Structure formats: structure tokens, C-alpha cells
Amino acid sequence: MKMNTWLKIKCRVFEIVEIAKPGDVVSKIFDIIIIALILISVVVVIESTVKVDIKTERFFQALNTFTVIVFTLEYAARIWTADLLHPDCTPGKARLKYIFSGMAIIDLLAILPFYFPYFIPMNLIVLRTLRVLRLLRVFKFNRYTDSLSTIGTVLKERGYQLISSIFVVMVLMVIASVLIYTFENPQQPEVFQNAFSGMWWAVATLTTVGYGDIYPITIAGKIFSAIIALLGIGLVAIPTGIISAGFIEQIETKHAQNEEHGEKCYCPYCGKKIK
Amino acid sequence: MKMNTWLKIKCRVFEIVEIAKPGDVVSKIFDIIIIALILISVVVVIESTVKVDIKTERFFQALNTFTVIVFTLEYAARIWTADLLHPDCTPGKARLKYIFSGMAIIDLLAILPFYFPYFIPMNLIVLRTLRVLRLLRVFKFNRYTDSLSTIGTVLKERGYQLISSIFVVMVLMVIASVLIYTFENPQQPEVFQNAFSGMWWAVATLTTVGYGDIYPITIAGKIFSAIIALLGIGLVAIPTGIISAGFIEQIETKHAQNEEHGEKCYCPYCGKKIK
Amino acid sequence: MKMNTWLKIKCRVFEIVEIAKPGDVVSKIFDIIIIALILISVVVVIESTVKVDIKTERFFQALNTFTVIVFTLEYAARIWTADLLHPDCTPGKARLKYIFSGMAIIDLLAILPFYFPYFIPMNLIVLRTLRVLRLLRVFKFNRYTDSLSTIGTVLKERGYQLISSIFVVMVLMVIASVLIYTFENPQQPEVFQNAFSGMWWAVATLTTVGYGDIYPITIAGKIFSAIIALLGIGLVAIPTGIISAGFIEQIETKHAQNEEHGEKCYCPYCGKKIK
Amino acid sequence: MKMNTWLKIKCRVFEIVEIAKPGDVVSKIFDIIIIALILISVVVVIESTVKVDIKTERFFQALNTFTVIVFTLEYAARIWTADLLHPDCTPGKARLKYIFSGMAIIDLLAILPFYFPYFIPMNLIVLRTLRVLRLLRVFKFNRYTDSLSTIGTVLKERGYQLISSIFVVMVLMVIASVLIYTFENPQQPEVFQNAFSGMWWAVATLTTVGYGDIYPITIAGKIFSAIIALLGIGLVAIPTGIISAGFIEQIETKHAQNEEHGEKCYCPYCGKKIK
Lengths: 275, 275, 275, 275
Fold this sequence. Notes:
- Four copies of one chain form a homotetramer.
- Chain A is mainly α.
- Chain A has two domains: 2-144, Four Helix Bundle (Hemerythrin (Met), subunit A); 145-275, Orthogonal Bundle (Helix Hairpins).
- Chain A is built from twelve helices and no strands.
- In chain A, helix 2 packs across helix 3 and helix 10 runs antiparallel to helix 12.
């Protein structure tokens, strides 16, 4: 039946664009091509900021057009097969659901800047900034790599603690910025112009980046700076501790689940395995 | 009864200013307004260090006056309802107990600098420094965020170990400062003037900030600097390890408590759940 | 029998060049000499970049020749005794297997640059770069130190998670480089020439190195830089958390194995040891 | 009896200079005085590098003399009571054993530089360097603080793994220094003079200090620098992971010991406590 063939093609396309069964060579090749094109498009964005001769420019523009066309086709294929992704919805609802999912919005934003300029005239700098969105294509890797979700889960579970520690850092930064301003402004009014300069210094010191464009020269400022730099160590240590604990908890949860499911079960008396 | 109505209002105010039952919309709105005002007052403090025209200045002064009035009213409400916070004390004792609690002192210090200048004339720079205390208002968030207490508990439990490791760093810093002074002073007497310069270098190197305003140029100084910089890695690694262990211990304590309370209990023989 | 004596010598050589029984003094001395020669050859490579007078030059050339000769003899001895390393293969196969093992290739690359120039004329700079391969000799320590393999196992087990986190950093870096270019290029076109300059800045900021050769001066650029620097903390925290969890998991696996083998077995009722 | 009184005094002195019973007020005051004097003597060492007027100089010299006298008396008291520390040895043996213990050597080195100049004339710079040894007095705190030993135990237990990771870093540093020299020397021969300059750069980059006195300017050098800076993250992450695991293992060992000693023992069936 013709109808059946059509459905078969659709299923095949769905298998190719979404994660397929293991051993599906065509789907794997498709994934590799998409990843390669994403990397190329990233190079094209970066290249667009470099001044090159007209020939190279044209080559990169052609490359850009090519990647956008492939991504557009991919986007269309994903929308077309969205009803297979959400089989419990009606086809229309499934597609809408897909279009407004995070990944699909990123996909759309990745191709839109290419079609946009033909409708609305915009100045070049804004356009260039819009092009950055293309880089979001790279997040498509998210679909392919599995471990990212583990990291994501840990960060989510520990979210409140991480945000709390970031909040403490923010408070510390504000206090530090006003204090360093008070210490340093009379001595170097050009460098520490206001508390915003102090904040820029606080960021560079607490994160231990230390560009060297702004630093205290008074004794009080240096002592205060030493305290802030040492507290900056805590800024690394506390989130690291939180995240470490999160990863370890997850491993233990997995072990507990395994034990519950009877996969690994040792007698506490003699250490032998029990069926 | 009139007396009863008065008590009801007091209870309501208490519910609003302190953490209320879940689902209390008015209390939630109050919290959000207070947080917003704290953030605004932080901006006002930072802005006070920037030179602006007279109109903007006046706008920020008005903003300042407004936030201080709200915080004063809040402070008064908290003192008024303090007897509900400590129901086992007499009203007078409860209020005194509240006034001398850490949070209330911060609240008072946050509003005092505004009223202070009308009584005692002080020079502007000292005043500006006193304004920094306003930022302490931000610690009120402590009341609202829960995870901070977990972090606090871990830091407290591991306190002795953290202080010990900080002490070792201090000793290292003193030794490093004298040694680098000995190496570098003959070559760059202007940069490494004395052991205090050496200490400033030691802080920048051990915390890996590295502003670049002071660094060794002799071979001995560079070799010594390399050793100190590598030890600086340990300066991060040891407290991080301590804090990580603290967080993990806390998670395990919670698990143990859950098991003790019979919430999760698995047979060690077969992994099945036991009532 | 002569044949037997020959085999005995071969066995002895094998014991000496490979890890021997504990208490074998000759083998231990051999190991120490080899480690010393590797360190000397590293010094020779570094020295080759320093301009010295002709006498010192000749001394180092002699030293170089000596170490290469010893390493060549060692390499020959290892190939000769390779059939004892793989007793299940034929002698020829065993030797081929050894020659194409990772360690043997490093050994060969360590001595080849010395013999190479006599066959093919090459320019001096390339030769100097080839000499770097000599440093790979140092990896021979790998054979002697045991703990390295534990670290290796942890990094391998956690490989996917580490690569995922590195990938996220790469994406972040590309986005950051284009955005900072957009912010800073109009203000400092000489410093932020193109997105590649932005990427160099992103590396220095995210890794908290902060050389200070490139940093934002606009307000938007500084705010963005602060966000990136704070995310740089995460860049340290996430892999550290992953690696910590890996080491802890390994310790627990060992404990579990010990319990399984009945080495340590406590009654869960009373805490007493059970045979 | 007179003999007995003498022994009593000795015992009392021993209790005071060594760690005494809890509640011993005199011993506690002695400890605090010694700690204060150590801190003062550290200030004196640092001050000796600052140029001050003759009066201040004399004040600090007097302070120095005073602390050295107290430390000498303390050292004498410790040697005198050493036979009570090692009651199983003869008095002479006990004293020799004490004199050659690590702590006693540090104590001696802390006071020797004061008496030294009266016997052998030495130039001032060497003397100044010898004074640094005085700082070793601070390690006496080791006797008083307890948590340091926990940190020490963890570092010792994990010693092999930490040394292995440091070794890998050393190898990486040597390779990096030669490669960056090869990349950068042709472009900036003044900055990257030889592989030693490269090594100085490698230290600053791998430890993320980044003074900014030396950094690559070529494209190849920058790409290589980015890789090294990212590997520098691992330089922090691996030892941190090792140390974290060490602290967690220690906590678990303690828990296991507690369970073994029957302090905390819960039924695995119902979570109730068992006597």
C-alpha cells in the first residue's frame, strides 16, 4: 500500500534525525555529518569577524549558505516527524509541542539570522551579534552525548546550595567593592574611580583571574585584598565541595538501586553472594 | 473584643515579617518587596561613589530616604512582635533578647548611618564607610534562603580543619615572603622593598591571583616562585577536600537518619523492602 | 649446558630490565640509573636551547651521546627478552608485539632523533623540536610508579563525563569569544582584532590565568567578563567533582571487594567480627 | 623529702611545657604566652627587612632578645624533663632521643641564629636568611592544634598518588617549556630566551597564576597555551579529587570503627538501636 510506504519513510527519517537503534549505520553517519556541519558553521561565525580578501569571503558565504540549508532541511524533518515523538498527542499538537521545546527553539534561532536580513533591514553590528545564536546549534550535541545529562542532574539537585553560595559571593563582592574604593580612591583616583571599579577589581580577585589592570597600592588596600583573595579560595572550594557531594550521592543512589533490584547482594555475615 | 482584635493584628504582622505558613500570599509579597528594597539600597550605596549631576543625586537621596523609612518600620514591627517569637519569656525580656540577636543588630546597623549624621557631625569619608553597613541588610536573605544553613553547618563542622589549613598557609606565606625578599631585594630593591612586599607577592602567588605588579626576576626567585605556585594548588585542594568530605558526611548522616526512622529499609539478604 | 647458561643470562637480563622480584638489588640499581639518565637527558634537551660556550656545548653533547647509547642498549635488551614477556607467542611474534606496544614506541622515539640526522639532512629548528620526544623517556617512570595507574583508571572511568564538561566549556568559549569581540572591538580595535582575540581572552579568563595582555574596558564587556570569570569557577568545580567522585567510588569498590573476600566482616547486629 | 619535692617540681614543669591535663590553667596560660611570643618573633623577623629609625630598631632588638631568652629557657626545660617523656629509657638516652626529634631540632634552629653571630663572623645577608628559621617556631602550634594531624594523615596516606600526579605535571611542564620556546623564540627572542623562560611560563600558566610578564603572541603559541591552561585545570582537579577521597575515606574508617566498638548499631531490618 502506498500509505504504508509513506509511513515507513517517515519512520526511517524519524530514526535518522532522532537517536536510533544501536547499529543503525545511516543514522550514525547522519549524526557525524550534522556535528561536522555545526563545527564548520562555528568556524564561519568566527571567521566573519576577521578581515579577509573577497574570494575567501565568498567561499565562507557559500559554506554558510550550505550549512543553513542543511539545518533548515533537518529542522523541517524534525517537525514533520514530531508526531512520532509524541504518539499520545494529535499530529498538530505534537508538532506545536515540539516547536516550543527548548531544543527546537535553539534549532530555529540557529537558522533564522540567515533568513532575517531579507525582510528587515538592520545595521551590520546587530546582525553580527545575531549570528552568535548560530553557535547554539552546538547544543545539539546535547542530544548525542549522554553524560551531559548526569552533570545536569547533579547541578539541578544541588541548585539551591549552588545559588546560595553564589549569593554569598555577590554580597561579599559588593562589600569588597565599596571597601576597596574607600581604601584606594584617595591614592589612585584614576584607577579606582568609583565602587564599580571596585567591583571589577573584586571579580578579578575573587575569581583569581587577576588581569593586573587594577590592584591596590595602599597598605590597608593590600591587607584587605589579601583577605579577599584568600576568601576567593573558598569561592572555588565551596561549589566544588557541593558538586563533588552531588556526584557521589548519585553514584550511591545507583548502587542502592542496584542492590534493591537484587543485582549485587552480599551476605553481611560472610560476604558471599546471595541469589 | 477589642483586645482580641489587637492581638490578631499583631499575630498577622508577626506572620508577615517573620517566615509565614506556606501559601500566605501577603507574607510572600512582603518578602519580595523587602528583597527588592535591599537590592535598591545596595545600588544607592554604590551609586554614592559615582559623581553624577545634581538631579540624579537628589533622586538617589530620595530613594535612600524611602528605603531607610521602610526598613525602620520593619525593624519596629519586628521588635513589637518579638514577644511572639520568644513566647516563653516576658515581653520585655523577649524584646531585649531579639534586639541583641545577630540579625537585629545587622538590621539596626543598616538604618543607623542614616539617622546618625543629624546628631554627630562627622567627615564625609567616614560617613561613606559607615554606609557600607547598609549592605549588611542583604544578609536578611539568610532568613529566606534555606540552603545557606547547610553550607554554614558544613563549614562549622569542618571549622577546626579549615582553620588548621589556613594556619599552615599563613606560616608558608611568612616563610615565602622573607625568602623571596632575600632572593629578589638585591636585584629589584624598588619592587621588593621589604618582607611586606614579599608577603603581598606571596598572597598573589599562593592564591593564584597573579596581578603582575610584583614577580621575581632572578633564577633563584623564579625557582622558589614555581614551588610556591605549585603549593598554591594545595591551598585550593586541601580546603576543597575538607569541604567536600563535610558535604558528603552530611548527606550520609541524613541517609542514616532516614534508615533509622524506618523510611527506607532494605533486607541485607535479598534487597527487598521491609515494612 | 651452554644453552642453559645462555637462557639463564637472558632470564637475568629480563628480570633486570623489567620489574623484578622484591629484594633484587641489581634490578633496583638498574632502575635508579635509568631514572637518573632520563633526568640528565631532560636537562640536556633544555640546555640545548641555551647559548653556551663551545666547551660546555661539547660536554653536553658527550652526555647526550652517552645517554642515547645506554637507552639503545636497554631498548635492544628489552626486544631480546620480549619472548619471555609474552611466553605464549612465538619469539618473533612476541618481539613484534613488544615493538608495537605504546611503551616500546616511546622508547624508540626517544633514541631515534639522535640517529636520524645522519641519514636525512633537516633544518636545525625542526631537529630541536624532535628532541622534545626524548622527554617521553620520562614516561618510563610509569612502569615504576604504581599510583599513576589508579589515577589513569579514574580518569578513564569518568572519561565521558570529563569530555562532556570540556565540550560545554568549548561551546561557552566560542560564545564568549564572539560576544566579547562585539562588545570590545569598537572601543579597542587593536586589542580585540577579531573573534580569535576574543577566544584568547576567553581562555585566559575561564581558566583564571589572566595574563593581563587582553581585558575588557567597556562596561558591557566588564559585566560580561565578570559572568565568564564566575563561570570559570564552575570550570574548575565540575571536573574536580567528577574526579573526586571517581576516586571515592574506587575506594568503595575496593572495600566492597575486601568484604566479599571475607577479609573484614562485621556482624550488623553487634559489630563483632565474624570469621 | 627534698628529693621528692625536686621531682614534683620537675613533674609540674613537664606538665606545663608539654600538653597537660584538661583544666590545668597554668599550662594553658603558658601555651598562650608561647604562641604570642612566636607571633611577636615573626613580626620581628619581617620588621628586620624594613628600614626604620634607630629607636624603633633598638625596641625590636630588645623584643628579639626577650623572645630568644624565653625560647631558650623553654628549650632547656624540655630537655630537662625529656626523661619523663620517654620513661622507658635511661635519662641520658631520653634526652638524646628528644634532642634529635624533629620538633626539638626546630626549637634549636629557632634560637641558634641569635647566639651564632657571637662565635663566627658572617655577612649580614646570610644572617638575615638564617633568621627565617625562627619562623619554624610557629610549627610548635602543631603540638597544640589537633586537626593538623588529620590533614597530615590524609596527605600521607594519599602521598603516592599525589606524588604521581605532581610527577605527571613535571613531565608536562618540561614538554610545554620546550614546545613554547620553539613556537615563541623566533618572534620574541628577548622574552622566550631559552627553555628555562619557557618553564617559567609553564609554571605561571599551569598553576593559573599568570603574572603577565611572559605570554605567547604567535597563533601556534596561543593555541598551545590554551591547551596548557585547560590542562592546568586538571592540575587542580586531580590532587583535589585525591585529597577529597582521602578525607572521605577517613570519615568512613571512623564510622566503621564506631560501629565495630558497638557505639552505634542499628538493626538492618527495622532501623532500631540494638544494645
